[in-house]
From TrEMBL, chain A:
It comes from Natronosalvus hydrolyticus. It is found in: Cell membrane. It comes from the Archaea. This is ABC transporter permease. Belongs to the binding-protein-dependent transport system permease family. Keywords: Cell membrane, Membrane, Transmembrane, Transmembrane helix, Transport. Residues 107-322 form the ABC transmembrane type-1 domain. The chain crosses the membrane at residues 12-31, 109-134, 146-167, 204-223, 262-284, 304-323. Signal peptide: none annotated.
Amino acid sequence: MNWHLKRAGQALFTLWAVVTLSFVMVRMLPWSAEDIVVAELIQQNPNLAQNRDMLRRQVQDMLMIDPDASITEAYVQYMMSVMQGDLGTTYGVRSGEEVSAIIAGALPWTIWVMSLATFGMFALALALGAIMAYREQSAFDYSNSAVAIVAASIPYYVAAVVFIKYIGFSDFLFLEMIPARNRLPDGVAVGLTFEFVSGAFRHALLPALSFIVTGYGLTALAMRGNSIQTLGEDYVRVARLRGLPDRRIALRYVGRNAVLPLYTWLIISIGTMFGGAVILEQLFNYHGVGYWMLEAIEANDMPLMMGTFIVLTAAMVVAIWFGDLTYGKLDPRIKSGDEGEAY
Amino acid sequence: MKVKRTEDDTAFDETSDGRDSEYTSRLLSDGGQTARMFDDTEVTEVTRTQQFAEVVDESIVQPTKIAWSDWRTKIGMIIISLFFFMGAVTSLHRHGYEWFNGALAAVGMPWQLGEPRAQQAPERFLRPFESWQYPLGTDMMGRDLLSGIFWATPQMIQMVIAAGVFVTVVATVIGTTAGYKRGNTETVLMTLTDIAMTIPGLPLVIVIVALIDTTNPFLLGIILSINAWAGLARSIHSQVLSLREHSYVEASRTMGVGTSGILRKDILPNLMPYIMINFTFAARGVIYASVALYFLGVLSYDGIGNWGVMMNMAYAVMGAFEVPGRMYLLLVPMAPVVIVSFGFILFSQGTDRLFNPRVRTRHEGATKSEAEDEDTIHGPVK
């Protein structure tokens, strides 16, 4: 089977599994979101306890599920509405607004910060790791290994707190250019203007940096270890003996093979980052998807919470699928589907 | 009675596994050797303790010695044991055994461990390192911050243990089974693993925590690492894929050893470094996540059960950000998070090095010719 098709199928399957999982959490668990919503609605308006029809309509509006329908019926209802992009209506944070509208306004910002952090971190980590391996046991190697381990020990939110206090709130020289709050400077409209682009970049800088500084260390060390191992391989020696240019050896022979085993690692770090977005966006008051997720939890707003969960996961599925495509480019072997026999 | 062990005796002990019945029947089948029985029984009695000592030596002392030889694992182990020591001391204190305070007083330390409560210290907002009676200062309610840090450790250790065991067991079972069985089992298990890996951990955890509001540290530990097993399962799976092609595994298979036997005897020992490293990662992940969720107030608390709780109060109630000079309220509980995570990372890095044969021989310079070879390979690159 075509490899690309297979990967796309896997991504779709994962999406389906995630929506099903959220249905389970909304409906089927003994402490489901539905029960919480019903209890909350009745508490707000005690008359609803008698008026079952009204209650049903309100719950359906919020969670896309008729509380009295059978599980299969409810499941079909739920899947249909999610597929149509309907994620229900909120009742806590911005009462009455459509969840999908709130998320649509927030998602691009989360993706922007996440891509900045992801690319920044991997570029820094892979380059540093490779250089450290080439200059193994030099002062550069030792000092950078030490810094990497210390940096990796700092949780991203600790870095964020320190950045907010000592860079974001600081008026020192150029530091006042780097704000610690919101997604854009006041009064700047979305559009392809210089103010907008530079403003968006400056406001995303500290959240992204919190990830980069605390996340690059272990990846760089892993890259270093792999490069050292690859440098010892016979094919690298043969390449040297053939007189191939060093640049070609470094990139095609060493770099490429050293990155491959890091693949699982990279996927996990993308996941950690998307998860971390929930916390960082709250600290930086950056109105992305993660911010709304925490707001929803504080307001006990189940529809918004489930909506942000589905969207965050979907965004990550797409990011990983994208990563898979690049992996296929790096390692042609996986496309050939050579998978040994089953015992 | 002291019995001098001869070389032969030792050889016997190893084969007999210290079980009397086996040992006796062995001798009887020897025919003429029965006369020596009484002597030998005495020998076994001595060797039992010795054998126990050997087991301890092989499974605990030797690995610790190897780990101790690397400065990374050494520092890591010191930090991790300190963390566990704090937990032990605090739980003992809670149960009324206050010898730790006695020891502190005997050494002449003015600080005493005590339950963090309002008006614990006479002075509020005491900054760190100003009074030796409250080395890390006090907060808005006059609670001693150092006592708070101690007080949180038992629950955090319970979480770490629950998470580490959960992650390791689930990942090892799924990873080895999928890698060894192949076929449909592999497809199903690895699809499951891929899905678990794709779901971002923290949002899922947050949703679950919002639905079930629990304060049980063991349950929380499992929830916080609900999909952390996936990464380990995947790397174990790929390791097993390469291990199963080794000739000794094929030999076992040809001899008719069952799947579980091969997994246990041939495959798992090779996976120990991965499992150990990932155990520390799971531990670190749980500390990170629990502190973060307490910090932002997603997890509800009742008393200081986590360093994140102290951070949450500093951030949300005491204005650590806004009021100048109160940043220490946030920095003090953050420091142990960084230190413990530093310990876990050093430990896993050192373990990686110890178990990675290539890196190890390179650094110990196994043989002279090899070292020279390496030089030619890694000669300066321009």
